[in-house]
Backbone:
């Protein structure tokens, strides 16, 4: 019987796509032991936006969250998402910081690290892949999927071969916008296999446009080894296809899913009240859960769509959403068709919104967009608009080497910066990634500890 592996995304991508990663540990703590018993290949539970959100919004130490998950989920592989040289932040970090971050992730409980570069510039994932393997983890390389005049089957097969040469343990095809059709998935996976790629393949997609479940099914038919799904109450919309539905379908077709359907129901029943609480507090809106076929035109990933909406809402400009969504592909073309994945999705989204709201294109150019044009994120997949490049660069030349090679080592400085609060590498990494946010978090943590001590003394 052909086996299909399942990666459950409820704790990371579903959480991030549907409720802006606001699920506190306490909400999912009771379900962890049940998730561990269901037969998943892996639980995607860390990385992506969870780290930032823990520190910024939830007053949680992300490292402690990981250790707590690990202490309960003993049998299932824990997986995280890492943006290559960007780690979990929004710019490139020096190699020693990348290595320390990867090593600490594995030490604190991660088994599989899915590593991607927004531009598919593989120079930007090499160090993280190398360190994951050295630390004894499973390095999952990634093909970031997008549709553009310059992204075709040959280009993807070439990427797949390069990843195999890097000796990644598996290859994920990452369709963050949910725009990959069933036929495209079938053709791509078939092409990768026909090209002689034997590294296990994983498909990651979203339901945004309604294609997700069909795309997973055709991917399995083409021989994909693993699919990403979300437990049903937090599936669909901008999230992943429902775990139970895919399990039911594939089991009926004769696949060994390894999953226990009764256990899945138990997990879903436990997660329903969590979902309801986010519906009640307004975080989970019907719009996010709906099928949005416009994304087939705009190619806007789930997370990006919800970010754009909340940004425009804050500026009382939600009525301009349509215009901004029309501007997104124009900005993307000007930037040489970067895939719309973090951090490119934010950069393109903010620039498109700025172009629309200021009533003049590129009247103001975001700092990150300027850095991108200078080559600080890697090589643009296509050609950057000459006039725009000229406006940013003037007579300067863009960087063509690997940007991280221009950075000074950063760990000593990071350790020195947190010395007044902590001497752990984990805290230094939190600070290196999100300095002001981490500072606020450490200060609050210290305050809390002091109050607890005072309270104990008084009680004694
Ligand atoms: Co995703």
Residues:
């Amino acid at each position: 019987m052909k086996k299909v592996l399942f990666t459950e995304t409820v704790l990371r991508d579903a959480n991030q796509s549907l409720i802006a990663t606001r699920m506190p540990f306490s909400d999912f703590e009771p379900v962890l032991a049940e998730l561990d018993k269901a037969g998943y290949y892996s639980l995607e539970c860390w990385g992506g936006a969870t780290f930032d959100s823990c520190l910024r919004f939830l007053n949680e130490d992300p490292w402690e969250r990981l250790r707590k998950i690990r202490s309960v989920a003993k049998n299932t592989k824990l997986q995280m998402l890492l943006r290559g040289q960007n780690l979990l932040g929004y710019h490139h970090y020096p190699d020693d910081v990348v290595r320390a971050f990867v090593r600490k992730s594995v030490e604190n409980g991660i088994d599989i690290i899915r590593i991607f570069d927004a531009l598919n510039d593989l120079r930007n994932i090499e160090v993280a892949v190398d360190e994951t393997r050295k630390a004894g983890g499973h390095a999952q390389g990634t093909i970031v999927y997008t549709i553009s005049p310059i992204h075709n089957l040959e280009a993807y097969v070439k990427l797949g071969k390069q990843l195999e040469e890097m000796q990644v343990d598996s290859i994920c095809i990452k369709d963050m916008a949910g725009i990959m059709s069933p036929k495209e998935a079938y053709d791509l996976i078939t092409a990768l296999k026909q090209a002689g790629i034997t590294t296990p393949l994983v498909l990651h997609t979203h339901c945004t446009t309604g294609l997700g479940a069909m795309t997973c099914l055709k991917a399995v038919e083409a021989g994909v080894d693993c699919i990403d799904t979300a437990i049903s109450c937090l599936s669909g919309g901008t999230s992943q296809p429902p775990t139970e539905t895919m399990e039911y379908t594939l089991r009926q077709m004769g696949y060994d899913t390894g999953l226990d359907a009764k256990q899945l129901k138990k997990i879903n029943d436990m997660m329903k009240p969590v979902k309801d609480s986010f519906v009640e507090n307004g975080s989970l809106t019907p719009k996010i859960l709906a099928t949005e076929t416009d994304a087939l035109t705009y190619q806007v990933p789930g997370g990006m769509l919800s970010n754009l909406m909340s940004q425009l809402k804050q500026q009382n400009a939600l009525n301009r959403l349509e215009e901004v969504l029309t501007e997104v592909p124009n900005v993307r073309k000007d930037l040489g068709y970067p895939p719309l994945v973090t951090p490119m999705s934010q950069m393109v989204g903010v620039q498109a919104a700025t172009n629309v709201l200021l009533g003049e294109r590129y009247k103001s150019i975001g700092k990150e967009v300027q850095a991108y044009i200078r080559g600080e994120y890697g090589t643009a997949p296509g050609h950057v608009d000459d006039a725009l490049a000229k406006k940013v660069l003037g007579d300067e030349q863009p960087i063509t080497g690997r940007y991280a090679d221009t950075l000074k080592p950063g760990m000593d400085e990071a350790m020195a910066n947190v010395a007044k609060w902590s001497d752990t590498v984990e805290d230094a990494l939190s600070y290196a990634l999100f300095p002001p946010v981490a500072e606020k978090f450490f200060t609050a943590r210290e305050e809390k500890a002091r109050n607890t001590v005072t309270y104990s003394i008084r009680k004694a």
